[in-house]
Amino acid sequence: GDSVTQMEGPVTLSEEAFLTINCTYTATGYPSLFWYVQYPGEGLQLLLKATKADDKGSNKGFEATYRKETTSFHLEKGSVQVSDSAVYFCALSDRGSSNTGKLIFGQGTTLQVKP
Amino acid sequence: DVKVTQSSRYLVKRTGEKVFLECVQDMDHENMFWYRQDPGLGLRLIYFSYDVKMKEKGDIPEGYSVSREKKERFSLILESASTNQTSMYLCASRTSSYEQYFGPGTRLTVT
Fold this sequence. Notes:
The complex is a heterodimer.
Chain A: E1 3-6, E2 11-14, E3 19-21, E4 23-26, E5 32-38, E6 44-50, E7 56-59, E8 62-65, E9 75-77, E10 86-93, E11 103-105, E12 109-114
Parallel strand pairs in A: 2-12
Antiparallel strand pairs in A: 1-4, 3-9, 5-6, 5-10, 7-8, 8-9, 10-11, 10-12
Chain B: E1 4-6, E2 10-13, E3 19-25, E4 31-38, E5 42-51, E6 54-57, E7 64-70, E8 73-78, E9 87-94, E10 100-102, E11 106-110
Parallel strand pairs in B: 2-11
Antiparallel strand pairs in B: 1-3, 3-8, 4-5, 4-9, 5-6, 7-8, 9-10, 9-11
């Protein structure tokens, strides 16, 4: 079945460092890809998305490019801030025959940014 | 902005009690979802609904049921709560472009 694999955390960075969180997927259909962020004690917030190959999603300085050839959707940010400390989830939504839009999540990667 | 609300942020119940978790969305979405989130296990889909009175089991439906009497409201029911149902419960609704929007979550403790 479809699956998402994220790099294990926690990831600890200093403020203004470059961030990459790796995400790869396995899917039989043509999924949409998402990054969600979860701040402590809160629900998940949609960070960015991409719906087809070579699409780049971006929001709040974060970017991710849908790479079909490597089945990847890595999250990047050029300069992280303390306020970016959170758990980040990569997810895919199968838009195939079932059409339910069920999300399949990676395990989540905890990011801690130190001042 | 899409708004998804959940009836409680924190809930403590006793083993064997019947528990209702309520979720309301204000964007007229047809599809709604219930997940549970546990450390080391990530998010797992319990049930989803694609229309009023229509529902389908997710990956871990055992011990749960759902109700969708109105489009904006999707309820998760624990028929007889057990300690292994202590978890964070997250509700979401889905747009036509497959984005899911989540509520703030209910942290349920069953003692």
